[in-house]
Amino acid sequence: MIDKPNQLKNNYDQQGYFVIRDYFNLAEISSLKEVVLKFHELWKKDNETFYKEEAFNSSLITGSEYLAFDDRVKLFNFISCKKIMAVIDTVIASKPSFMNTQLFFNPVNPEQKDFWHRDCQYDHEVEEQKIAIQETQVVHFRVPLFDELGMELVPGTHKRWDNEEEFNVRQEEQGRLSNESLSTGKAIKLAAGDLLVFSADMIHRGLYGMDRLALDILVFDPEGDFADYVDDDCLPEVSMLSQIEDPRIYTNTLDLKSIKP
Ligand SMILES: O=C(O)CCC(=O)C(=O)O
């Protein structure tokens, strides 16, 4: 299904990311687009002020708020289709578990600039972030629906701490701003049909511009204690499971949540 899975795994372990170009065909992307755009239009209407003033993403795309049963099943089947499971299984060897989805778009407000961060900085103080990057991390699987400028990543930072420039920019210390350029950053342009896999805790930023609308699928290794981050509503209902061809990533999360006290 995928060429050289060991090489992809090595790239991920060493660099914190890899891209598979032209992984999805036109039919797969247009069918995904149909469901995701339905969500996006309803979400924008329902969150008008937030969308116009500050938003650059939404989440819980698989939830029950904006999509009906059949569209949710369609989306669950895309997320856990053979092509994506082959990549997920390459990166997370044992019981990969579904966490959430996010949809990234361009902010309406032109003053909003793309900013460097590690996802863990929103949950942890600096000393805890140093520990978080040594532990199991959440993996993003980004599926761009249109050609876009893509992401800028700092290779290797899923495992190593920031240098001085990276830290000051990302944390906005010493008068630096999080949208300044980093000399260690690597821009990865993406086209509809590509799949970008990257660690949530590496230093990264989305690059605003073009028609960007990218679906990020977040998956975790159950070795990390992330089950509490999962909103029940973004998981399939029990009656949907029999309609999902390979529901492992969902049942793994459901198992983790039900064994919690
Ligand atoms: O695309 C973006 O705007 C940011 C992406 C990001 O931070 C993420 O996927 O964690």
In short:
By secondary structure, the chain is of the alpha+beta class. The protein has helices spanning 5-15, 26-46, 48-53, 69-79, 82-91, 126-132, 164-170, 238-241, 248-258, and strands at residues 17-20, 57-59, 97-105, 139-144, 148-153, 186-190, 195-199, 204-206, 213-220.
How would you explain this protein's 3D organization?
The chain has helices at 5-15, 26-46, 48-53, 69-79, 82-91, 126-132, 164-170, 238-241, 248-258; strands spanning 17-20, 57-59, 97-105, 139-144, 148-153, 186-190, 195-199, 204-206, 213-220. The protein has 261 residues and is α+β, with helices and mostly antiparallel strands. It has a 6-stranded antiparallel sheet with strand order 1-7-4-9-3-2. It starts with a helix and ends with a helix. The model has no long low-confidence stretch (mean pLDDT 96). Bound molecules: 2-oxoglutaric acid (AKG). 2-oxoglutaric acid is lined by residues 56, 104, 119, 140, 200, 204, 206, 216. 2-oxoglutaric acid (AKG) is lined by residues 56, 104, 119, 140, 200, 204, 206, 216.
Q: How is the main sheet built?
A: 6 strands, antiparallel
Structure classification: alpha+beta
Strand content: 15-25%
Give the SSE order as H and E letters. HEHHEHHEHEEHEEEEHH
C-alpha termini separation? 39 Å
| DSSP, total strands | 9
What characteristic shape results from the CA principal axes?
globular
Mean pLDDT: 96
Number of helices: 9
List unreliable stretches of 5+ residues: none
Spatial extent as radius of gyration: 18 Å
The distinct ligands, each listed once, are: 2-oxoglutaric acid
Strand order of the largest sheet: 1-7-4-9-3-2
Helix content: 25-40%
